[in-house]
Amino acid sequence: MEGSVQVFIAMVLYIAAVIVIGLYYARRAGESSDNFLIGGRSLGPWVTAMAAEASDMSGWLLMGLPGVAYWCGLSDAFWTSLGLAIGTYLNWLFVAKRLRVYSHVAEDSITIPDFLSNRFKEKDKIILLIAALFILIFFSVYAASCFVTVGKLFSTLFDTEYVYMMIAGALFVIFYTFIGGFLAESASDFMQGTIMFIALSVVFIAGIGHAGGISAIIENAGKIPGFLEFFGIAKPVVDDAGRQLVEAGEPLFGQAGKYGLLTIISTMSWGLGYFGMPQVLLKFMAIKRSEELKISRRIAMVWVVISLSAAVVIGLIGRVLYPAELLTSSEAEKIFIIMSTDFFVPFIAGIVMAGILAATISSSDSYLLIAASSFSKNIYKGIMKKDATDRQVLIMTRITLLVIAFIAMIIALDENSVIFKVVSFAWAGFGATFGPIMLFSLFWKRTTRAAAIAGMVSGGGMVFIWKLLLNPLGGVFAIYELFPAFVISCIVILAVSLLTEEPSKEVQDEFEYVRAQVNG
Question: In CATH, what class is 2-519?
Fold first, then answer.
């Protein structure tokens, strides 16, 4: 009981710090919708880097990824992480600066739907509507994954009903995002990114010590067929309920499965998602000076590579130390919590596990804010009430935020949701809907408005078709839905652009002006 109290105190201190940040920025956030939604483009390089990565990775990094490594070994987690690291680098290298410049030139766009609509100078706002609707759909799912994370965290720590803990965590996130907006979200994300990094590092180091060193980990984990292979995968033997069978205290594994080229392409395609992630792209748009993005890129890459590596190894170490403790893929996502509570005194464990809370908050606040802005700024003001005042837009943003959060909480009621799977679907949705058109919009002058519409619809729609209809067929269709949907969207954009009338002189001149600004 005393240990739970100490963990609770550590969590409360962390939550208090986040609330203070929210209150500090509340006045500035309430001054205008621009301040609330994009912080007046005032972020520095460190905050930009840490906020982008913290909001990107979410609780998936501390629970979902270690859970995958614990459940089936190295290959799935490694190739996914490699794809993410490469995608992160390419996004910062090629997209960040051009988007920062272009979004400012294109009528000072402050949301992704705004930018795409302004980029093609559309008058009927079809792109705006489609982009906003896809953001509402996929961010509701994304926010739900964060609420599942916080529910699992608190219910495991305090042995309390999952649903109550999920709702409590969700209400806290809603409260401080509601009052502080983008600046509070970005400032707290900097702190939360730091806490996530420290939490992963200390559990990684302590885990190696508890497991007897790296050689002992390799020796013990290597006894599981396919567990430490790059081109094989461990296969837990499970019953009809998906629970791993245990014999004489040891979990049962079948013969190692094959991890072929198609599967590697599938898992590495996670990296394609970065080109369409609104929570990351908005941070590029919000930095004060585009010249500082090079510094941000270096900071972000160090954070990403070390954090992903630590998360994967923590899952592997967890299987060595607790071979039969977590017997479903959903339970496996609690390995970081178990290791933290076992390795450290309760108060320190509470601080370490604040890393999970930090990861969850840093992502869910971004998701809620972007989803709310997609409706208030793009649908409400852009289409429904074009004469809406800035104050009305701000009020509508906050109302929409509450509605979306409520929907996400309903989705998150299922305690057995696997965070990795929930995140993977939303990630594919954003990557295929916005990734291709973002790249074509930034780098190909010939891209047309009709192609933008067709590309978003085909990419986002194919994610649903592939996931729900084709993926269950197995074989070549078992590939991660992001890859085929991304490729199809690119083909559609290219074909429709060539088949339709080229963009107006105004659109092409603006493209050339941006290119000169970026290269100048």
Answer: mainly alpha
Domain boundaries, the chain: 2-519
H runs (alpha helix) in 222-345: 261-268, 278-286, 293-321, 335-343
**Res. 23: pLDDT tops 80:** no
**95-105 burial, b if ≥16 CB within 10 A, otherwise e?**
bbbbbbbbbbb
Burial of 81-93, coded b for 16+ CB within 10 Å and e otherwise, reads bbbbbebbbebbe
Grade residue 35 by pLDDT with cuts at 50, 70 and 90. very low
141/498 Cα distance (integer angstroms): 35
Give the pTM.
0.85
Strand, coil or helix: 151: helix
Burial of 163 (0-12, 13-18, 19+ CB in 10 A): middle
Say if residues 267 and 482 touch (Cβ distance below 8 Å): no
Q: Give the pair of three-digit tokens for residue 44.
A: 């520095």
First to last CA, the chain: 63
Nearby residues of 495 by Cβ (< 8 Å), 6 or more positions away? 451
Q: What is the DSSP code string of 379-414?
A: IIIIII-TT--HHHHHHHHHHHHHHHHHHHHHHTT-
Question: How far apart (Å, rounded) are the C-alpha atoms in residues 215 and 210?
Answer: 12
Q: What is the mean pLDDT of the chain?
A: 85
Task: Spell out where 65-150 has E strands.
Answer: none
pLDDT of residue 440: 98
Query: 141-161, pLDDT tens digit by residue?
Result: 878 877 887 787 778 777 788
Classify residue 455 as left (phi > 0), alpha (psi -120 to 50) or beta.
Answer: alpha
Q: Give the DSSP H or E segment for 258.
A: strand 257-258
Q: H helices then E strands: how many in the chain?
A: 20, 4
